[in-house]
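User: My collaborator and I are trying to settle a disagreement about how two of our proteins should look. Neither of us wants to argue from intuition anymore, so we agreed to look at predicted structures for both before our next call. Could you fold the first one, then the second, and keep them clearly separated?

Assistant: That sounds like a sensible way to settle it. I'll keep them separate. The first protein:
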Amino acid sequence: LIAASLAATAQAFVAQPISASSTLSSSSRLAMSDKPEIEVISSPDKEFLEKKGVFGWGTWGCPASKFPWTYDSTESCYLLAGKVTVTPGDGREAATFGKGDFVTFPAGMSCTWDVTEAVEKHFMFY
C-alpha cells in the first residue's frame, strides 16, 4: 500500500512538466547544462577594468560583417566601439552587447558573430 502510494505520487510529480528556461535562474541552467553561457557585464566601472588590466590588452576591430568563430580558449574583451550579437551554434543563449560592455566567451564554443556596427575592442585569451 505504501509502495503504491509512493509510485502514484512520483508519477504525478513526473507528469507535471516544468520549463527550465522560465523557472530556473541562468546559474541553475548552467549547472544543468554544464556549458557556460556568454557573460556580459554592462558598463563596468573603471576600477573593475583596471583590476582586470584591460587597458594593457591587445586591440582588435572589424567592420560590420557576419562570420563564424570558434573559441579554443576563453576570451574576455571590453568593447570600445560597436554593436554585436553572438549566437552560439549549440543552443546556448545569444548575447547582444556594445560599446562599454565587458564580455567573456567560454572556451570550446562555436558561434556566429553578427557585427551590426563596426567593432573595436580590447581582448585577452586565457
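The second protein, kept apart from the first:
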Amino acid sequence: SSGINAEYKLEFKRQQLNEFFVTHKDEEWFKQKYHPDESVKRKDELRDMLKKRVEVFQEFMEQGKFNELTLDGDKQDALIKVLDSVVIKLEGGSDFDITVLDLPDPEEETKEEED
C-alpha cells in the first residue's frame, strides 16, 4: 500500500513539474533561469555587472570620493551626488558626464525666481 502511495505521489509531482514547465517555458524569466544557453548568458551578464560595480567602487575609493562622505542628514546633497555619480559610471558614463551634477538644478532656479 505504501509503495503504491509513494508511486502515486511521484507521478503526481512529475505531472505538476510538467505542467509548470509547459506553462512557463516560453516566458523570459523561465528561459533566463533554466535554459542552458540563456542561463549561462545571464550569469555572464550578472558577473560583468558585478565586476563593473567593483571597478567603479575602486575608482571612487582611489579618487577619494568617499573620504569626506558621511550619512548625516545635513550632508544628503553630497551623498546623493556620489550615488548619482555611481549610477552614471555604471551606465557607461564618463567623468565628463558626471560634471552635469555640478550644474544648477533647473527646478531649484524656478522656485527661487517665483519667491
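Some points you might bring to the call about the second protein. The chain has a mean pLDDT of 86. The chain has six helices and no strands.
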